[in-house]
Design goal:
By secondary structure, the chain is mainly α. It has one domain. Helices cover 66% and strands 0% of the residues. The protein is globular and about 30 Å long.
Protein backbone atom coordinates (compact mmCIF):
# COMPACT_ATOMS: atom_id res chain seq x y z
CA UNK A 1 0.00 0.00 0.00
CA UNK A 2 1.38 3.38 -0.90
CA UNK A 3 2.09 5.82 1.91
CA UNK A 4 -0.03 8.41 0.07
CA UNK A 5 -3.07 6.10 0.09
CA UNK A 6 -2.57 5.16 3.76
CA UNK A 7 -2.25 8.82 4.80
CA UNK A 8 -5.33 9.81 2.82
CA UNK A 9 -7.39 7.01 4.35
CA UNK A 10 -6.15 7.86 7.85
CA UNK A 11 -7.24 11.50 7.40
CA UNK A 12 -10.70 10.39 6.23
CA UNK A 13 -11.11 7.84 9.02
CA UNK A 14 -10.08 10.22 11.75
CA UNK A 15 -11.89 13.35 10.55
CA UNK A 16 -15.12 11.58 9.58
CA UNK A 17 -15.31 8.66 11.99
CA UNK A 18 -12.88 9.47 14.79
CA UNK A 19 -11.08 6.16 14.37
CA UNK A 20 -7.45 5.27 13.78
CA UNK A 21 -6.14 3.00 11.04
CA UNK A 22 -5.78 -0.06 13.27
CA UNK A 23 -9.37 0.28 14.53
CA UNK A 24 -10.58 0.40 10.92
CA UNK A 25 -8.61 -2.74 10.05
CA UNK A 26 -10.04 -4.61 13.06
CA UNK A 27 -13.55 -3.42 12.14
CA UNK A 28 -13.05 -4.61 8.55
CA UNK A 29 -11.78 -8.03 9.69
CA UNK A 30 -14.75 -8.45 12.03
CA UNK A 31 -17.11 -7.61 9.16
CA UNK A 32 -15.38 -10.16 6.90
CA UNK A 33 -15.84 -12.74 9.63
CA UNK A 34 -19.51 -11.79 10.15
CA UNK A 35 -20.33 -11.86 6.41
CA UNK A 36 -18.04 -14.81 5.74
CA UNK A 37 -16.59 -12.77 2.88
CA UNK A 38 -16.17 -9.16 1.85
CA UNK A 39 -18.77 -6.89 3.49
CA UNK A 40 -19.41 -5.04 0.22
CA UNK A 41 -19.93 -5.75 -3.46
CA UNK A 42 -17.02 -5.48 -5.87
CA UNK A 43 -17.85 -3.80 -9.16
CA UNK A 44 -16.16 -1.80 -11.88
CA UNK A 45 -16.57 1.96 -11.57
CA UNK A 46 -18.79 3.81 -14.06
CA UNK A 47 -17.35 3.80 -17.59
CA UNK A 48 -16.44 7.51 -17.48
CA UNK A 49 -14.16 6.93 -14.47
CA UNK A 50 -12.87 3.64 -15.84
CA UNK A 51 -11.81 5.19 -19.15
CA UNK A 52 -10.29 8.34 -17.60
CA UNK A 53 -7.52 6.79 -15.55
CA UNK A 54 -7.68 3.02 -15.13
CA UNK A 55 -4.08 2.63 -14.01
CA UNK A 56 -4.39 5.25 -11.27
CA UNK A 57 -7.78 3.94 -10.13
CA UNK A 58 -6.64 0.35 -9.83
CA UNK A 59 -2.95 0.83 -8.99
CA UNK A 60 -1.77 -1.47 -6.24
CA UNK A 61 1.62 -1.27 -4.58
CA UNK A 62 2.88 -4.24 -2.70
Amino acid sequence: MSLELKNSVERILFSSLGMIFLQAIVFFFKQVELYNGLPFNIALPPKRIFDDDIEKTFAVSV
